[in-house]
Specification:
single chain; alpha+beta; two-stranded antiparallel ribbon; 2 helices; rod-shaped
Length: 90
């Protein structure tokens, strides 16, 4: 059974109002306790999340790397400030 957001909305509305009957997927369902209803809400939420397409996070950081050559990776002379240039900067 494929659940939709409207089914979840109906379950949440029933929980808030204290209703004992909920219509989801064209079926009328009676719940004995609020715990039973909360368990179904959690199940429906997990099913909807599992059927949602995977997307990448907009905050995902994708690092890039570049290769330095020994003669020009740092400053004018290619070397570090201590040796006056001419060698690797590290």
């Amino acid at each position: 059974m494929a659940f939709q957001q409207t089914d979840l909305d109906a379950l949440n509305a029933a929980l808030v109002s204290g209703a004992k009957y909920v219509r989801i997927c064209d079926r009328l369902i009676e719940y004995r306790t609020q715990t039973e209803l909360v368990e179904l809400i959690n199940y429906v939420q997990s099913q909807i999340a599992a059927s949602a397409p995977l997307t990448t996070s907009p905050n995902l950081i994708q690092p890039t790397f570049s290769k330095f050559n020994n003669g020009g990776g740092h400053g004018e002379g290619g070397g570090g400030p201590a040796d006056g240039g001419g060698g690797p900067w590290y």
